């Protein structure tokens, strides 16, 4: 998969470019300043392991791990919790865990290093490398540009001078819309909601909601004053008491309704970062919760009104109170949750029913008003409610009969919802027409340049693996293309390739004393089939040359591979399941690579099971059939978990030409593992080249915080141990942010040493 970096000067439109890619594809998206609900308790996020966060041990020591919240400001209320940089790291870890079980997704990141101190940069770099192994990553950056451009496969440059075009790698003046379309490639993320997601909503929005507690306290306070003020009112004051009760109910729930705008915005951005299963589900649950809140307050209003005045105890009066309140509040719910209107617009438009009710419902002016205009009173539930109140019903004009009046109350109470649904339907039809026009325009951009651009960005094989994509490449080549000669050429080419692979296997078998250890994910025959398919696709099926040229390609490949096999090496990577180890393994495709790991079964699993042991994954092994996994004791004999670790020395080291040390981290295990490898190599195969790979001294404190002096001493001890005891040794230092360059350095060291040995 690929990592694409978008660069440009401030104000050149980098973030806007990413926004347009997101709108085009609806991919996974982390914004520069991403919004989350600040009152979310981090440990309660479903299907998320917070212990993998680099700062989590601080809260464990402080005994705050179960209580720490996301933190931030929402609806004008500040909640203490994580810092902005910690929230950014939380989102990174979250999408890494969420997407670990899937592949071929598009992940878009805006300023991933913004707000993050340098000591956490290695964490982000590590997560980026994890993401790019299975997904395509597109990001914008102004920080650590050198680090990211070095890691990147593609570079897009945007300019404030010409916003209609961009530069992609060496391609100048690429149409901006075409570039956005070419980048908008990836399968859809799928996540099935579970009971854990429902429990998460309950815990966050109900059980520990300070907003609900605030509404409860305010409601109790207001209605206590109401009872004290209107106690023992006369029946002739029914209208006055009902008006007061309705106003109190409205203002008790109004702050909660206005906070729905910020809640909706947070939900949308949380969905972009895969925080929850579905924003549609959460909006539905929030709607039901808000309806329940209005229902409860109306019951309180009904009880308090009847406690202060007689004559309104029938259930029909409670129904009228409920839908009178609904006519004033339902519009705020619809606009707050189901539109993209800003807060001020929602506040103004959503409050119109309350304002117009005062003027048009004749609540405060029974029988008055200008003809025609006063007929608008029939649209308001309050008018029909007043027709039911004994104290004022005689002053109301043209009230419906008693047997249907409650139906009119309910229908007029929901009128705002009906109008909202009609408007949304019209807007949806309009958006559909605009989308069709846009798609017609986009179809005109899918030309040869567009195809070449996608191939350059993602590669042909990656595009063919996608199930859902915005690509002009055909997943199946038409049978009518090509002549009979070309078909024969393809068949001959495939036959030559099979012969080539058979010869390669014979050569490899004779070059070493015994075959490489069996793969965890399948036998050697299965690995050869995968390798045969890979070579065939690369050498023949993806070639655009003539049949004659294909045959020439096959012949030259045969010669090249046979010559190459003569120099093939057996390379062992203890602890090579990390980012650098797996990347180096992929680069050593002309050699046999054995990775020593504590648990080969877990390391080869489709998804990562635990952080305790290394993992490369079955997908990586399928793509790299020259890589094998082997259980070993980890060098310390203290925590052995693999089922078949005994005899790893004879199977892995006996025929090893090169041993590259990646094991141990910066703990004491690093020294123990190095000593174990040196001892066993000297016992079974002292001629192997021993290579230690370590970071630069000045970068150790950045990679692993604390005890820097002790860690430097351990690294030097390992290097001295190899130099003093091994016949052939190399001690390499690489820059931690330049993994590709580091891998190339290790590879060139191996190749140069092999050439020198061959000359001898």
TrEMBL record:
Keyword annotations: Membrane, Transmembrane, Transmembrane helix
Record-linked SUPFAM superfamilies: NAD(P)-binding Rossmann-fold domains, P-loop containing nucleoside triphosphate hydrolases
Keyword Chaperone (UniProt): no
Transmembrane segments: 211-231, 237-258, 288-309, 315-338, 345-364, 405-427, 551-573
Name of the protein: ABC transporter
Organism taxonomic ancestry: Eukaryota, Sar, Stramenopiles, Ochrophyta, Bacillariophyta
């Amino acid at each position: 998969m690929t990592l694409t970096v978008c660069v440009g000067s401030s104000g050149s439109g980098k973030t806007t470019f990413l926004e347009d890619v997101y709108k085009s594809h609806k991919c996974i998206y982390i914004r520069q300043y991403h919004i989350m609900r600040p009152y979310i308790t981090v440990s309660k996020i479903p299907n998320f392991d917070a212990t993998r966060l680099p700062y989590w041990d601080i809260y464990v020591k402080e005994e705050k791990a179960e209580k720490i919240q996301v933190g931030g400001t929402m609806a004008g209320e500040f909640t203490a919790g994580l810092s902005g940089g910690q929230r950014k790291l939380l989102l990174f870890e979250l999408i890494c865990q969420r997407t670990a079980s899937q592949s071929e997704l598009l992940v878009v990141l805006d300023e991933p290093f913004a707000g993050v101190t340098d000591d956490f940069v290695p964490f982000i770099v590590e997560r980026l490398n994890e993401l790019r192994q299975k997904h395509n990553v597109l990001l914008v950056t102004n920080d650590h540009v050198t680090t990211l451009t070095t890691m990147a496969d593609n570079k897009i440059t945007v300019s404030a001078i010409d916003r209609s075009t961009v530069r992609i790698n060496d391609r100048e003046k690429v149409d901006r819309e075409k570039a956005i379309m070419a980048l908008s490639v990836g399968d859809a993320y799928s996540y099935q909601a579970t009971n854990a997601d429902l429990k998460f909503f309950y815990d966050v929005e109900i059980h520990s909601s300070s907003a609900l507690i605030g509404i409860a306290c305010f409601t109790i306070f207001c209605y206590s004053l109401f009872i004290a003020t209107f106690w023992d009112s006369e029946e002739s004051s029914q209208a006055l008491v009902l008006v007061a009760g309705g106003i109190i109910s409205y203002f008790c729930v109004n702050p909660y309704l206005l906070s729905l705008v910020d809640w909706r915005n947070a939900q949308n951005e949380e969905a972009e970062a895969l925080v929850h299963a579905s924003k549609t589900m959460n909006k539905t649950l929030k709607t039901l919760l808000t309806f329940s809140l209005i229902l409860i307050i109306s019951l309180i209003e009904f009880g308090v009104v009847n406690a202060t005045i007689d004559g309104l105890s029938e259930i029909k009066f409670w129904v009228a109170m409920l839908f009178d309140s609904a006519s004033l509040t339902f519009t705020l719910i619809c606009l707050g949750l189901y539109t993209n209107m800003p807060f001020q617009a929602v506040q103004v438009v959503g409050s119109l029913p309350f304002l117009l009710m005062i003027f048009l419902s004749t609540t405060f002016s029974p029988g008055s008003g200008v003809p025609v205009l006063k007929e608008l009173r029939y649209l308001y539930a309050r008018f029909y409610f007043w027709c039911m109140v004994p104290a004022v019903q005689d002053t109301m004009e043209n009230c419906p009969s008693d047997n249907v009046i409650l139906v009119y109350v309910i229908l007029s109470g929901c009128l705002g919802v009906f109008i909202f649904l009609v408007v949304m339907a019209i807007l949806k039809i309009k958006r559909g027409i605009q989308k069709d026009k846009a798609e017609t325009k986009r179809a005109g951009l899918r030309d040869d340049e567009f195809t070449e651009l996608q191939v350059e960005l993602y590669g042909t094989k990656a595009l063919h693996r996608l199930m859902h994509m915005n690509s002009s490449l055909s997943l199946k080549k038409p049978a009518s293309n090509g002549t009979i000669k070309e078909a024969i050429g393809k068949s001959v080419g495939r036959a030559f390739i099979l012969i080539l692979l058979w010869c390669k296997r014979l050569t490899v078998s004779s070059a070493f004393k015994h075959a490489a250890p069996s793969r965890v994910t399948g036998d050697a025959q299965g690995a050869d089939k995968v390798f045969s398919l890979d070579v065939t696709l690369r050498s023949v099926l993806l070639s655009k040359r003539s049949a004659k040229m294909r045959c020439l390609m096959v012949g030259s490949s045969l010669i090249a591979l046979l010559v190459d096999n003569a120099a093939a090496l057996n390379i062992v990577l203890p602890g090579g399941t990390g980012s650098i180890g797996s990347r180096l393994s992929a680069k050593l495709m002309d050699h046999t690579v054995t990775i020593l790991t504590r648990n080969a079964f877990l390391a080869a699993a489709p998804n990562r099971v635990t952080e305790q042991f290394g993992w490369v994954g079955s997908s990586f092994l399928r793509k790299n059939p020259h890589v094998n996994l082997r259980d070993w004791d980890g060098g310390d004999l203290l925590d052995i978990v693999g089922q078949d670790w005994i005899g790893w020395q004879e199977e892995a080291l006996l025929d090893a030409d090169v041993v590259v040390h990646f094991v141990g981290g910066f703990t004491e295990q690093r020294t123990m593992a190095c000593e174990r490898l040196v001892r066993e190599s000297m016992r079974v195969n002292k001629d192997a080249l021993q290579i230690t790979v370590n970071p630069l001294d000045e970068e150790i404190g950045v990679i692993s915080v604390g005890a820097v002096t002790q860690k430097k001493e351990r690294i030097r001890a390992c290097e001295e141990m190899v130099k003093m005891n091994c016949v052939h040794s190399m001690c390499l230092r690489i820059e931690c942010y330049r993994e590709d360059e580091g891998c190339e350095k290790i590879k060139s060291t191996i190749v140069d040493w092999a050439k020198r040995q061959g000359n001898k």
